[in-house]
Write a structure and sequence with these properties.
This protein has a 5-stranded mixed β-sheet. The longest helix has 6 residues, at 3-8. Helices cover 5% and strands 23% of the residues. The chain is mostly beta strands. The protein has a domain at 3-60. It has 1 helix and 5 strands, in the order H-E-E-E-E-E. It starts with a helix and ends in a 51-residue tail after the last strand.
Length: 111
């Protein structure tokens, strides 16, 4: 059935503005800000296929703000010991060498 005929059988005034937070069912009429009017032709738990005048698009749906919808978040735990807690084994080349300081790993002797 041509898209224009499908729209003719629908009440365009009942078209819902598309939102990823909303949940849609087959045959729902939606108004997308980029693609215009479309009819939901297939649904999956988190996606819907919507037929628009020029093409079919897969859109996300059902991502509403229900308390269980957000994943649990816990900040990472700080390591009690690690490389950041130990002094660097490398010497800062811009720092002058002290008279009684032992320097290792240099490719040439310091005068």
């Amino acid at each position: 059935m041509p898209f224009e005929e499908v729209l003719a059988s629908k009440d365009i005034g009942q078209a819902r503005n598309y939102s990823v937070k909303e949940t849609y069912k087959q045959e729902d009429l939606i108004r997308h800000p980029t693609f215009g009017l479309g009819v939901v032709t297939q649904t999956r738990p988190d996606k819907v296929d919507v037929t628009f005048k020029m093409y079919v698009k897969t859109l996300i749906h059902g991502r509403g703000e229900t308390p269980g919808a957000k994943p649990a978040f816990a900040p990472p735990k700080a390591a009690t010991e690690g490389p950041a807690d130990k002094p660097s084994q490398r010497r800062n080349p811009l720092r002058p060498i002290l008279e009684n300081e032992k320097v290792t790993g240099m490719s040439h002797p310091h005068p």
